[in-house]
Amino acid sequence: GGHSETLRQSIRTMEEVIGRPARIRFVPAVPGDVPDTAADIRRIREDLGWAPATTLAEGIAEQVNALVIER
Predict the structure, then answer these.
(1) Per-residue confidence (pLDDT) for residue 3, from 0 to 100
(2) Hey, CA dihedral for 22, 28, 34, 36, is it positive or negative?
(3) DSSP code of 35?
């Protein structure tokens, strides 16, 4: 969506979409874990005029619906 979110924000969004609290288990970080990751979409905006049209919540809802339909 052109901005970063924390893992906790993403989990909260998933909980809201699904309507249930997540069962979260905290474990120590392992070597190689990265604290932050984000995509820079400036080039695709400039080169192709593309912009994200789906929010994280919408994308999660679509994924959940696809999984439910497949069952």
Answers:
(1) 76
(2) positive
(3) S
**In Å, how far are 3, 10, 61 from 37, measured between CA atoms?**
11, 13, 22
Number of continuous H segments (helices) and E segments (strands) in the chain: 3, 0
pLDDT in tens, 42-69: 999 999 999 989 998 999 999 988 987 7
CA 23/CA 56 separation, integer angstroms: 20
DSSP classification of residue 37: -
pTM of the model: 0.73
The single residue listed with the structure tokens 């789906």 is 54
Phi, psi (5° rounding) for residue 29? -65, 150
The pLDDT tens digits of the residues spanning 14-27 come to: 999 999 999 999 99
